[in-house]
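Folding Problem: From Residues to Backbone Shape
Fields: amino acid sequence; protein backbone structure tokens
RECORD BEGINS BELOW THIS LINE
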Amino acid sequence: MKHRKRVEWTRLDNAAKIFPPTSNERDTKVFRFACELFQPVDPVILQEALDETIEIFPLYKSVLRKGVFWYYFETSSLRPVVEEEALPVCARIYNENRRNLLFRVFYYRNRINLEIYHALSDGTGALWFMKSLLYQYLIRKYKDSFGENLPKFDYEASISQKMDDSFLRHYTGKRLSLTVKGERAYHIRGTRKEENRMQLVEGKMSVKAVLKAAHEYDTTLTVFLTALFMHSIYKSMTERGKKRPVIISVPVNLRNYFESESARNFFGTVNIGYHFGKNSTDFKDIIISVNGSFNNELTEERLKNHMERLAALEHNVFTRAVPLALKDITLQLANRVNERGITAALSNVGKITIPAEFAPYIRQFDVFTSARRPQICMCSYGDNLVVSFTSPFTDTDIQKTFFQALTRKGIDVIIAANL
């Protein structure tokens, strides 16, 4: 008599629940990390590295399933296969009519690309997977150079720590008002690209040069570029559009504020707004306002309250009893309401570090995401800062204004695009 293998399943974390009912061909909820090497990628070794890495991150073996009341991850016997890049950037991964893994690894010349469906992980968790993949690849590719002295890897979380639902662990049940008033934002319009493809424009520049420009305004790199993004949007606004504020949604890595080694989602978002129709358009004044907004929003108390509000909906007895089909409709409506209060988004992954022994093999990293609206993602490696714009629209005026403003400040920018 044959015994059926026990199927393991995991509930989605609090942040992940919004993605399945709101992702589609137009908004795939997929993001990409890319690493450019100095030498062409060896696909055979990359496959070996991936086979090892997926054993370190067991959740990546999962497929997404629909239950009566919730979506859930189910462990599968599927194994990822490395392929040469052939799909549009951030193409759809999750489709409820297919049973497939929620990430893909592929290569093109010197680049290794990792694309992930956001329900599986956030940027920090995905970066840990990417760095693990690179570690396994490089120690195999250049084993003769390392010999017995393998570089030390900086992410040594246990399996249980990687699988931790940190939203659930930090939830206290604190009673808070579930309604938070938000202002309707200015929305960017444009002609969409054919076949729902993303417009990608990347600018590569010196971290030191951008920091120097930011310090001239006595502010941080993130505040400086957020204000510049806002100002670039303002330059393309009509007079009628200036009746609404420009509001930038900024993801926040909650691991910087609350203990967590989770490789799953553990992020929040803050909205940074500026009303050009009511306030000064001088860049210094925009920076002062944006800096104040970041200082107000990025406190442990504010972020904790935001987490508590989101988790309270999940723990509500009535909500838990509602069938998934009705939950989907509710989440879709809630997402539309939330979208009204957002103009664009900006995500700063920050400084990417690797063992010093790997420096001779890695040229740069970059990160970008699918987007319903223009969005900036950025990361740095060494002195290379890569700022990536993705947009569903053909128009690139905002991108041009943004990068031209940087060059006028004496910053050399190398532009690349998928036009």
The chain has a mean pLDDT of 92. The CA atoms of residues 162 and 351 lie 21 Å apart. Residues 123-141 form the longest helix (19 residues). The first strand starts at residue 9 and ends at 11.
